[in-house]
Amino acid sequence: MKNNTYRLFQFCGLALAISCLPVMAADHATGKMPFVAALFTDNMVLQRNLDIPFWGWTTPGQQVTVSLNGKTAHAIADPNGKWIARLGTFSAGGPYTVTIAGAETVTLTNVLIGDVWICAGQSNMEFKFGRLGQVESANPQLRLFVTRCNVTVTPQLTTQGKWGVCSPENINKFSAVGYYFGRKLQNDEKVPVGLLETTFGGTPAEAWTSIEALGAIPHFKAAVDNRISERAVRDIDAWTARQDLASPTAKALIDPQFDISNWKTIPVPSQWNDSNIGRLMVGTAWFRKDIDLPATWAGKGAELHVGVVYDVDDTFVNGTRVGGLNAFDGWDTQRVYPVPVNLLKVGKNTILVRVANIAWYAGICGKPEDLKLVVPGDSSITPISLAGDWKYGAVDRCPGDAGPAAVSTIYNGMVAPLIPYGIKGVVWYQGEANAWPPTATLYRTLLPTMVQDWRRRFNCGDFPFLIVQLPGFGDTHDQPADTSWAILRESQAITAQTLPHSGLAVTIDIGEAKNLHPKNKLDVGERLALVAEATVYGRNVESSGPVFHSATVEGRAIRLNFDHVGEGLMTKGDALKGFAIAGVDGKFVWADAVIDGKTIIVSSPKVEAPVNVRYAWDDFPICNLFNKNGLPAMPFRTDVPATLP
Length: 645
Known about the structure:
CATH topology of the largest domain: Rossmann fold
Structural class: alpha+beta
Number of strands: 34
CATH superfamily of the largest domain: SGNH hydrolase
Mean pLDDT: 90
Largest sheet: 11 strands, mixed
Low-confidence stretches: 1-30
């Protein structure tokens, strides 16, 4: 099997703003790997109290020397040209200068020693601070690195990106949850903090887990076997080649003379999930609209407004590419591209947009008024609306085992290149893409498998792994019901309670029923920081709301005991809500609940002999139990958790 780089999107002409740039060697023409791995740049943070690794590539057998603050380490490049040097341990401090010398000499400045945390997960971790519309101050003791999106079927050796000092501009492009977490840690612990963001929206945990680790889980055996097949490699190679804008396939489609008589009609703006293109199809489709321009447009430059495109667009006018962006740079990013003078002509003009779906929803979206062709600053030229019927065709579905939801693709492209950078721990906000049968229950096996695999590979010991428990989202049921979101939250809690050096930040109270991406990221980040301070840094702080400990039947009621009562139990509102109770028949009904000291008594006139209690067991539960420290109680059930499939 070839050891190539297989990318979901290999679009040669994309602007540098696109976050799915190909992750290749520094010298794309020769295939030369970088002398120093991309994670080592000016302004970086290196992990304190850890034998710090440095690595890169050079001529096999070449000696490389790394020096930092009076310490020096030597390495010899192996037969593949990779060198790795470990410089020893350092206390927090800086700024320092690092010198790496061999076939080349690289000097890295403004380097700090402190704590490095990976901020990983899907879109709620990916949610950028800039989308909140707030302004933050610079913090020279906080440093940020964003890993480029990359989806591959083989593990990658390097990535793209650079460390930046925390500034208002850098903050806006960084995970809001990650930033709030790091800000509180840095302020409270008074040490430099480095945050390394690796995020990709809509991705399940199996995409973040290596093939080798998934092979131990029977549920994924078929997917793992398929991934390593020769057929899969050939299919992905062929698909990737077709996506190159210089390929014969793409060049023919870009030509305005290409015959589209057999293409179908689609209303624009719209999501292609509602068309014949295919619901949740990962792949590409081409959209074309021919317009006629009057003589008044002759010799004019213009602006092409394409609206919002999910996820990646390449946009052409009369066969010339005028722009392209990635929706993950901002889900509501309006595509506005300058059209050079003389590119437009009187009469027929062709507008062509290649849309690539990376995950979930796709299409040329937005509002009808967002789609138009205008001449900026010239009110005498009437804008041309582009809303309405377009033609689409050349739909090219990505092989099913190569997309960002497929096994190991995100691990290969966005985790493997980070190994073995020295880290303090990981904060993890993911699970929405697994909150469906049967993976909601399977997650209690899948997530620990992923964590243990990462720990082995990073070789930093059993580093802390802190999980955001999913907030409320979706339906509130009239009657108690089993839901996949509740089971997924339980799987997250079981992982945090049973896997050593793990923790959970409960956010059940700050979700939004109709918004998968709630905007309260401050509480999420700061609750994660509280968990870190209590469990990692040894601070005497309450890091959790009430956590169910035990239940005792007392006649027609059940008394519940809790850990993390803190300063005491409290209700936000007039009466406790969110409790359900059941007898031996297992039929749950809504219950009355009252606080009795550090316990809660639950009962219902409909249940004479109660057996089990559930709390906040719904997609979007109405629940209001807190401790007086202001932290919400963790959802729970006392009946036996569902059996793993």
